[in-house]
Each structure stands twice: as structure tokens, then as C-alpha cells.
């Protein structure tokens, strides 16, 4: 891919220049950067990071609607990685812009202070999401009108039956129910950023070594050091760990961070790399997806029989909780193809011309990128919305058309949430000068 030389540092939390996957963000000499637009002219927005993160938000909504037919067609059904990888990787890239600049301009202490403030925001987003969802599930159960218990469907019985220790666990992050596990993981990974920025002063090799060692601490069995690695407790009454182990998932976050920060150079655009990446995605599918494996089995029993033993052999490499390396490789291959497809600066995403199709795509791109820009607000809203859509579907026969209508209604609502969040962030009540 042609090198991208424009990477202006935005003032907002959401980046205005980014890449969808491994965008070329190497530190370029000053001569490579285009001069700032004259007369206060706005820079052209690179849509790639926001576009792919927006796509992830739609997938995450689909994935969390209980009993949703559409979950059979999300990325998780066709390979090792899924929308979680998109979310974490893009969050790392966005953090490099939003927080990396603070470390560079104001020093380590002020950069750390900004990260702490963001962690504070994410923590209260997590607490608010939990209480809202718990309240809505309790409200449904209190009606007595439904055969199923919506509280128990999220395994929240312990919280309502014995709230005191669970409240302590909720606020200390030692009680993390499965449905509420992404934001705590993101919070802990964010908290590792000051460590990595401090190690950068020693050398980039120390950052890479630290990330690799933290990942190994979560996955010691990969080098024969025992069955259990570093993890965090998810509930006081059992030995269950967090479903998303932040010590494993930080590897992907800081990979995205490193690409956007310029610590890692962008890979070259190469026909050979494109073919290798595509081949890996296609031929690994039966090893990472039961859906595809069953298709292979229906087509050729002998081939399926040859593939089946690999599922047990690669179990640790496919591990989602601790972030197995096959998930890492699968996502990087997918990200590379997405980056190449988008073109330098995301130019292939931007429609040219005035045809009806071009205008339609421009409209869709604006909507998707808006959802990506407001990812935290949209994520929290979608997680609450998914349970309510699931409840609504429970009152129907879950037919194809009804399910489609429910998903499309959900899409419209998260789009509305994104635009509303952007409107509030613009502080429209302030007097314009």
C-alpha cells in the first residue's frame, strides 16, 4: 500500500485520522507531511478506523441479541477471530491518537492522568450498564407475566439473592458476569498504557518484551509452564475467571497501538501477502468454525474426519479467554486484507461521482463512521438494547421477517444513539462566537 503521510493529531477523544487494521503510521520525516491547510480549511477525514469500528458495533449488537438468527452469519461463525478483535485492535489504534499525543506533549505524568480519567469514565459506564440491565431484567420478572426468568438468563440470581458481597465484588471488579465482561477487560488494558509509555523511554524492544511476557503470563501452557496462567476472578462463589483475560488481550490492543503510534511499520502491499492472507482465512475456516466444519462434513466425510483431530490439538491456540495465537494470526490476516481493500487514506471507501449509488454509499459511510466515532456510547447502549430486543423476540415466533425487523430496528436505534452522543458532545447550548 502507498505510504500514508498525513496523521494530524486531533483534539477529540475519537481520532480523525486512522486505519482499519494495520494502517501505515510509521514516524515519517517532517518533509513527508503535507502542509497544514490554509485559511483554517478542515483536513479530509480518513474514514478507515471509524468505519471498521462502526462495523464492529453493528456485529456486536447482533451477537448479543438472545436467540438471534442473524448470529449464524457474524464473523465468529467463519473463523478464529470475531468482532471482539476488531473492537480491541481499533481501540488500541484510537488510544494511540487520543492518549499517545498527551504523553508526547505533556509528559508521562499528564499522559497518565488522562488515561486514569478515561479509566474512570469506562468504569462508571460499566457500573451504569450493569445496573440498568439488572433493573430491566428484574422489572420483567416482577411482572410475573413470563414463564422464563430474565434475571437468571444472565446468571444474576446471586446478585439479587445476596447483594452485599456482590455489590462489593461489582465495584472491585471481582464480580464480573459474562455479559458484562468487555468493558472491565478494556479498562485493565487501558491501565497498562502508562507502563508501556514508560518502557518506551528505554526502548521499543522493552515494550514488545513486556507485552509478550504479560501475554505469556496468561498463557503459560503455551511453553509448558503449567495449565493455569495469570487471570482475574469473575465471581466470589466460584473459581471462574474473567471471560476476557486482559493480560492476554492486551497483546492485540498494543499491536493496534504500535501501528498507529509508529512503533511498527505498515506491511508492504504485496500480491503474495494478499494471497497468503486470503488462503489462511479460507483454509483455516473448518478448523476455527463448527459451522464451516459441518459444511465440509456434509460435502466430504473423509476430509472432515481428517480435520476433526485438529480441533483438540489446536484448542489452546484457539482459546478466546486468554487470546490464543490462532485468533491473533487470523485477525491480522483479516485486518491486512481490510487495510489493502480500503486503499491509502481510505480512498476506496470514499465514493466519487454523483450517481445514485455513489450518494447512497456516501450516506452509508457517514452513518457507519458516526457509529464508530461514538463507540463507547454505542457499545453501552447496544448491550442494554440487545436484552430488550431479545425480550421482544420472545413474544413472537422468531420468524425470518420478524427477526430481520428486530435487527434493523436495533441498527436504527444505535445509529440514533451515535448521532445523539455526537450532538451532546458538541455542547450545542454554548453560545457560538
UniProtKB/TrEMBL annotation:
One Pfam family, short name: OpgC_C
UniProt region (Disordered), positions on chain: 18-42
Membrane-spanning residues: 51-66, 86-104, 124-146, 166-190, 202-222, 242-260, 272-293, 328-350, 371-393, 399-424
Keyword line: Membrane, Transmembrane, Transmembrane helix
Coiled coil ranges: none
InterPro entries: UCP028704_OpgC (IPR014550)
Protein name: Membrane protein
Organism of this sequence: Phaeobacter gallaeciensis
